[in-house]
Amino acid sequence: MTGVLTGSLAVLLGACGVVGTEDDRRAAEELAEKHHPGQLTAIGARTLFPGTGGSEVTFAVTDDRDAVVRLRIDTDKARGGLCDGKDCAGVLADAVRRGSRPRTSVRSRRRSTPAATRSSRWARPAHRPMSSPS
After folding, report:
1. Which residues pair with 55 in a beta bridge?
2. Mean pLDDT score of the chain
3. 17: left (phi > 0), else alpha (psi -120 to 50), else beta?
4. Which band of pLDDT confidence, cut at 50, 70 and 90, is reported for residue 79?
5. Which of 2, 72, 93, 103 counts the highest number of beta carbons within 10 A?
């Protein structure tokens, strides 16, 4: 019975637009194109329900494969249509700045460390052929 009630509530909230990300993603894409034309590509969106309203939209930086930018946006007019309670253009500019900053330190460490001494934690294991049954 609890599962049915939970499922019904999810369908009802989805139909009312409470857990949908389409409007928020569209608004975030328009904002990114207006303030950072050609620099950001939306790659995902997730709802922030039930903790808060709105969505978190993730962007890839087009000229850097390592950088991502996340923007929390809520287009609901009752909540003011803001990003974390602030003007969205400023929040997006800060997010782009933060997303761009760490990539230089990671790349400089990668270049300064010889390949033989890098951590093998992320290395793929060597391919070992399967033995044939005897």
Report:
1. 47, 73
2. 75
3. left
4. low
5. 72
